[in-house]
Design a protein that fits this description.
24% strand; two-stranded antiparallel ribbon; binds zinc ion; alpha+beta
């Protein structure tokens, strides 16, 4: 009942995962400035009464305004 063969016969996958293009899925359009931006650092904020994702810069601006 040994399953060690599974480990020893493990080889590299035939298909290497490669992100296509420039990672389109990781980009979004900022709801505040309207610019396509990197999804990293984005945040969900209220913009004009709507909850929308904003880019990092806009998020910081909104946060700075709120803390005042
Ligand atoms: Zn923005």
């Amino acid at each position: 009942m040994s399953k060690t063969s599974d480990e020893t016969t493990r080889t590299a996958p035939d298909v290497t995962f490669k992100p296509r293009g420039t990672g389109l899925a990781m980009r979004f359009r900022c709801g505040r400035c309207g610019n396509p931006s990197d999804a990293s650092g984005r945040g969900l904020r209220h913009v004009a009464g709507l909850r929308t994702y904003v880019c990092k810069a806009c998020k910081q601006e909104i946060d700075a305004r709120r803390s005042r």
